[in-house]
Design goal:
With 201 residues, the protein is of the alpha/beta class. It is built from 7 helices and 8 strands, in the order αβαβαββαβααββαβ. The protein has an 8-stranded mixed β-sheet with strand order 3-2-1-4-5-8-6-7, sandwiched between helices.
């Protein structure tokens, strides 16, 4: 099986998210990084875009792209944003890096009419095998960091997230699963590298 780069895999994730977001919608991207996804949404869907990012170097890159991005910590909440003030809040590869993911999701659903969440799937078979055979924290294309340098604070699986949404009574409107740059539907918790969800309250 051909191995693809993380960048190629992320392009499919972005395409899925862009397909889900309505034309001309308002979007708040939490942990927007260098603004790649926001830029695509502005270009493809003419969205009203705003980002929140804690990394100053990433913010400079966003500004260079003409994006409106604020230097804030999403773990501190979204007190500046009224209830239901945004059409879509996005947590693309950010949830597992949050110190208080439950609070971040709660705030995102308060502010946003819809919430898009994506995260690397810690339940994938390659991750399980690495832990079983080596007894060490796994390193995979979706989880490419050594334990001492990873930005990820929480390791969750697709099944974990389904359970979480059930407990918190969060509606899952759509879901998609990516493996090796392709969408998969059969046994996603075992096979997918990334899970992507469209949620509402």
């Amino acid at each position: 099986m051909e191995t693809i780069s993380k960048e190629q895999s992320m392009k499919l994730e972005h395409k899925i998210i862009v397909d889900w977001v309505s034309e001309g919608a308002s979007v708040l991207d939490l942990g927007c990084g260098d603004g790649e996804l926001l830029s695509i949404l502005v270009k493809e869907k003419n969205v009203s875009a705003q980002g929140i990012e804690i990394d100053e170097q990433a913010i400079y890159k966003c500004v260079a792209k003409g994006l409106s991005v604020f230097h804030e910590d999403i773990d501190a909440g979204l007190s500046e944003h009224p209830d239901g003030s945004v059409d879509y809040v996005i947590l693309s590869e950010s949830l597992q890096q949050a110190k208080r993911p439950d609070y971040v999701v709660s705030e995102a659903l308060r502010v946003g009419k819809n919430l898009v969440v994506s995260f690397p799937n810690f339940g994938r078979y390659t991750v399980r095998f690495q832990i079983l055979l080596s007894g060490k924290v796994p390193v995979t294309p979706a989880l490419p960091f050594q334990w001492y340098e990873t930005p990820n604070l929480h390791f969750l699986s697709i099944s974990n997230f389904f359970d979480y949404c059930k407990i918190r009574k969060i509606n899952i409107i759509k879901s998609a699963y990516v493996m090796n740059g392709k969408i998969v539907s059969f046994l996603p918790n075992l096979r997918a590298e990334t899970g992507i969800f469209l949620l509402s309250k």
